[in-house]
Amino acid sequence: MSEFSLFNTLTRSVEPFAPSDGETVKLYTCGPTVYNPAHLGNFRTFLFEDLMRRALRLRGWKVVQVMNLTDVDDKIITRASEQGKTIREVTDPVITIFHEDRKYLRIEDAEHYPRATAYIPDMIALIERLIANGVAYVADDRSVYFAIEKFAMYGRLSRLDTREIQSGARVSQDDYSKENAQDFALWKAAKPLDEACEAAWDSPWGRGRPGWHLECSAMAMAILGETIDLHAGGIDLIFPHHEDEIAQSEAATGKTFARCWCHGEFLLTDGAKMAKRVGNVQNVADLRRNGVSGAAVRHFMFSTHYRKQLNLSGEALEGSIEGVRRIGDFAERLTAAQGGTRGLEEAADRLDRDVRTAIFDDLNAPNAMAALFEFIRTANKELDAGGSEAGSLRRAREVLAMVNGLLDVQPDRAAADADLAGWVEGQLTARTEARARRDFGTADAIRKALDEKGVVIEDTAAGTRWKLDQ
RNA sequence: GGCGCCGUGGCCAAGUGGUAAGGCGGCAGACUGCAAAUCUGCUAUUCGUCGGUUCGAUUCCGACCGGCGCCUCCA
Fold first, then answer.
1. Which of A189, A186, A239, A188 is nearest to A217 (CA)?
2. Å separating the CA of residue A14 from the C1' of nucleotide B52
3. Do A382 and A424 reside in the same domain of the chain?
4. Which nucleotides of B are covered by protein (CB under 7 A)?
5. Each residue of A191-242: pLDDT tens digit?
6. Which nucleotide is nearest to A299 (CA to C1')?
7. What's the complex ipTM?
8. Same structural domain for residues A86 and A192?
9. Residue A15 resides in a domain
10. What range does the domain containing A382 cover?
């Protein structure tokens, strides 16, 4: 069996990876905070995780993926109060949009999408364990904090020396009273605003709500167990989010929380991190409105390795749209082909091997994509040569399906409705007749009329074919 | 101030101590009535700059220039 390796943030190096039980990968991925539709930067991370789960399965393992939905937090509460709603009324519609966007980008369903508010009892139980272990304390304001100096390994993931966080850092004191500025909240005592939008629950320490980091630890352990195989997220979550998850999980259980940590780099726009506070965000809806397909977005996101920053530009996106068109045209050609050649089969074998090698080597999607395009060029050539071997054709289709099951960059050709199809067929018949009598003026006028309806035609030896543009 | 990443052709981008994958675009050719699709050839003597190590560096080391990120709740 081929090796599978991933870059582990804990060691800052690419290492062999396998699930601890040799069979099922327990994967936890930090999901969106649902107060606003996720932007493309968020989706770059989710796409990287989608590729990861597909790669793990291709390697032969089962995957149980958890993606949490953070449906209680400061921003959600702010939004709810502004609109006079409960947090649930704010988050429900955003979750719906999240799943629509996700499906548009062909991100597979995770096995679990837990909402933080559904796991309050688990979170409270975890806090009680931490207090019992002496690493958490209840402050004067009835909030509960984790005391980072009680956890020796604190800082191991982010490699931040806790004593040296100083000038330049955004060290803003929040409204809570804690013993050490770097301690983080496990439980936040309720304020009137929280109660007003139904963001407060009973607890042994009074009314309140969970801290952000706590959610992930509690839900990961509740669903996947105390030690998980893989934990992934955006690079900005390394600190403090994942650092804190490790602290509170391991301080509670005494066991390794996640065996391997993977982080995806940022998507930039105009050379700056895409973020709401920078004001340069673009959503899936924006691309959708501009006719950019999910397949094209995937091609774009996978054109660069996940650990490298990627700049969103119109030019790059155009390139992906064209690239994906080529893949689509080729796939249709392969579907329609009557037979293949020995060379086609060899090219398919090569593609099979090269894609696995690339993707099992720390998810090298750009190399996998390169292998796909090399295959397309060779296969087109072989198909030009004719050939009648059913076996090689079958093999080519099988490998292309495998690659597509991994990258999923083959565009859907929009099916024309019956009215349009009928009209097009009529036009094509007229055009074929015109061409037969060498009346090219009429033939070209018809082609122009079709083009204006978004119909592109190709004259081939077997007759004229047509498709909808994009 | 601390920590870290990156800089490869017009654009995107892989990559290795031994002389630059792939995609988009462009140019030329084949095919076509013309197109489209496809194929072929061309499109970086060179990998931010300057040094060093080496038989040999884009790949290792150093300095510098430029871009980006993290340093308490941001994917």
1. A186
2. 29
3. no
4. 1-6, 10-15, 21-25, 32-40, 67-75
5. 999 999 999 999 999 999 999 999 999 999 999 999 999 999 999 999 999 9
6. B23
7. 0.95
8. yes
9. yes
10. 294-299+310-407
